[in-house]
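Researcher: Structure prediction, please.
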Amino acid sequence: MDYYNLIKENAGERLELTTRMDDDVKLRNLLAYVMMKSDGKTKVDGVINVTLNRPKTMAAFIISALGRTSGQILVETEDKKLDTDYIKDFRRLAFAAADEKLLKLKLWKLKRYFDEQVCIRGGLAARCLFQMVDGVLDPDITCWDYRYVNYVPGEDGWASYGYSTRKKKSVIEGEKWYKSQGDKVSIPGKEAEVVEVWDKDHNEIWLGGVKVFEQEHPYGYVPVVIQGVSLGSMLADVDDIKNQNESIFYLIREAIPELNRLVSIIQTQALGTLFPPAQDALKSGATTPAENIPDYNKVMAPGSISAADIGGGISTINVGDANRAAMMAMERMDRNMNEGGFIPRQLDSPAPSGVALIIEKEGKDVIYLPRLETEGDALGALGDMLTVQVIQMGGEVEIGTLGHERKFNTEKLKGRYQVTHTFTVKSLATDAGMASLAAAYGNLMSDHDKRRLILQLDDPDGAERWLSYEEAERLSPLVKLRHIAIDLIAKGDEEDAKLLTDEMDVRLDQLLSGTVAENKSVAGKEPSQVVSLFGGGTGRSAPKAPPAPAEEIK
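Model: Predicted structure follows.
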């Protein structure tokens, strides 16, 4: 099959989509704005062109926020004999090992690369090859730029994936396939187009339009994961591809040039107030010869006095209040930008209410959640893929980061289970709003549901276990002494641990003999609203009833 031409054909079909991606990159990189006439081709002269940094600021805050997310791996199964923690540990170390290899190659870690891809490109892609090289496991997950990934259709969907990029000669010479060819391959020029194609049976490399490498692989599937953001159009219209897998700019893409236009008009008009156009009229109405027109800077300079005949003189030309019209339009446009984009919160005085913080969180989630869901789905698919590849090796495999390697028995990775990767954006400000809402519910909702549905903790069950441990320590000093002794032993301080255990024995004997009273539980902290749910300062979880009136003393 001529994969090269099929890949090129698919690239042509995706041209509108990839053109949109290129335009989004120009927005993020702040391509200098130039005001054009209505034909879109002719530059408007005499304009101070202004390029606002709004898109770059927005991208920086969103990508940074995605980088601060808290990740969780959930393994679900009906097999009670399956060790789910073992599977979680394997996945964590596998991805950590893949990240370590990327860092050694001076490349971005998976999560950081995916963050920018889902924000700017609207999707992500990666090739996964976990294999033994010289007796050592090579954890190879290579990120592909979603912009340059194309597909070849097959009976069961996409039968193969192709990655088309231009690479420098030094980069090509450093790749495994090139090194394996010796002197058989010559690179045409300082850089060349490289097309890497994978199907379920084999892999081939095209260099400058010529197939230069081909090999079979044992997987039986395409070892590539590609995932688009589920935001944008999902219609079947032929010309609708440009509206699929939207980036973070999809609600403000058309508004940004108009905002630049308005600011440019305002700046140009502001400069015009310093140097307004002027006319020199004679009392008879005759025009002034060109050679006799006075110097503009001389007659318009502050404090200057110019002589003129009666009925004539120099006067400025009124061009209308363009500033006011532009400012009104800009105010409306700025509101539209705030509605469609993400603007970081400025310090409020007084502090925002809990409801305001919750509303702000819901607005951010519209931008965050589809992208985090895409990353989670992609990592889940990559995790499934690398697990299958490791199981195919059989026996034990050692995996992990330098100094933290661990051996895993591939038999324990087999079974019927489903692994889900999830991410939650963490923000102390929005957490304060959600904590206030949880406290305001009081006894209307169980603490378990508050942690799971409102606070959205990564591990609500684990949080409950820790709270149970703390409650046990409050109920019994003996339990607390035991926990402290265990910690001391773990730190190697066995002498202090021995003293504590001796004291525990004495207290236990006294308690059993009835010579000391049983300790009463120390009440934990009452949950309170971090910020007032509706503004106006902080508040407790629920107002307390006023004290009953004292009885009259007779």
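Model: The longest helix spans residues 354-393.
Researcher: Thanks, that helps.
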